[in-house]
Amino acid sequence: MAAGAALAFKLKGSRQLALCFFGEGASNEGAFHESLNLAAIWELPVIFLCENNLYAISLKLEEFVRVKNIADRAAAYGMPGVTVDGNDVVAVYEGVARAAKRAREGQGPSLVEAKTYRLAGHLFDDPQHYRSLEEVDVKWQNCPIKRFKAQLKAEGVLSEGEMERLEQEVNQEVDKAVAFARTSPFPDPEEAFQDIFS
After folding, report:
1. What is the mean pLDDT of residues 178-182?
2. Is the Cα dihedral 173, 179, 182, 183 positive or negative?
3. Are 63 and 26 in contact (CB under 8 A)?
4. What pLDDT is stored for residue 124 in this prediction?
5. Helices 160-183, 144-154: crossing angle, 10 deg rounding
6. Catalytic residue (choose from 98, 122, 131, 147)
7. Would you give the distance in Å from CA 175 to the centre of its chain?
8. 44 FRET partner, CA 20 to 30 A, in 6, 89, 149, 181?
9. In this structure, are 39 and 96 located in the same domain?
10. Is 33 a catalytic residue?
11. Are residues 118 and 153 in the same domain?
12. Number of independent structural domains in the chain
């Protein structure tokens, strides 16, 4: 779908670009390879962003991928591939910004891999027998939110009070959205057939 949207942007002469998010497990699917190949051939303005959290449901990355980095696969399609620290907000921003600049200049697609870690289970009630609690505890020390919060504080961008105020505002907004969802009536089943074009 991202390649299709990018083709539409290119045909319209727009400066828009498509940004496609997926996990490392999806990089083994045919749609991944077909999309990268087509995007490269047609020099489409699309960024493929792999959120590599090291697990595909319950399989460790090294059990289903031979390459060291998912971004290494970009070379097979003649596009740049870059791996960034997915727990570093600024590194992810900069990697995507470079790819966006390239796409807007008509130089085609890029593959950005953000290496991170899935701190929660794959599902809400995932027993997580495939990894140890100690492994997860160690990875929590590199939580991207905590890291960025510490960075903003160290650089004097936000004070502790400003951070607390922002967190309260976000929590209130989330609570309001949850309350709205829980108190809203169920939609009419006929709505399932609205806005379908194929």
Report:
1. 97
2. negative
3. no
4. 86
5. 140
6. 122
7. 24
8. 89
9. yes
10. no
11. no
12. 2
In a domain, residue 117? The reply is: yes
The secondary structure of residue 143, as a DSSP letter, is -
Residues 36 and 112 in one domain: yes
Residues 77-103: tens digit of each pLDDT? 999 999 999 999 999 999 999 999 999
Model confidence pLDDT, tens digit, residues 102-136: 999 999 999 999 999 999 999 988 999 999 999 99
Query: Is 45 within the bounds of a domain?
Result: yes
Catalytic residue (one of 33, 130, 131, 147): 130
Active site residue 117: no
- Between CA 46 and CA 109, with CA 22 as vertex, the angle to 5 degrees is 20
Q: Of 97, 127, 157, which one is at a domain's C-terminal end?
A: 127
Q: Are 81 and 73 in contact (CB under 8 A)?
A: yes
Residues 53 and 88 in one domain: yes
111 strand-pairing partners: 48, 81
The values of phi and psi at residue 18, to 5°, are -100, 145
What average pLDDT score do residues 7-12 get?
97
Domain boundary among 127, 154, 172: 127
159 and 75 in a single domain? The answer is: no
The parent domain of residue 165 ranges over: 143-183
The count of other CB atoms within 10 Å of the CB of residue 195 is 6
Active site residue 129: no
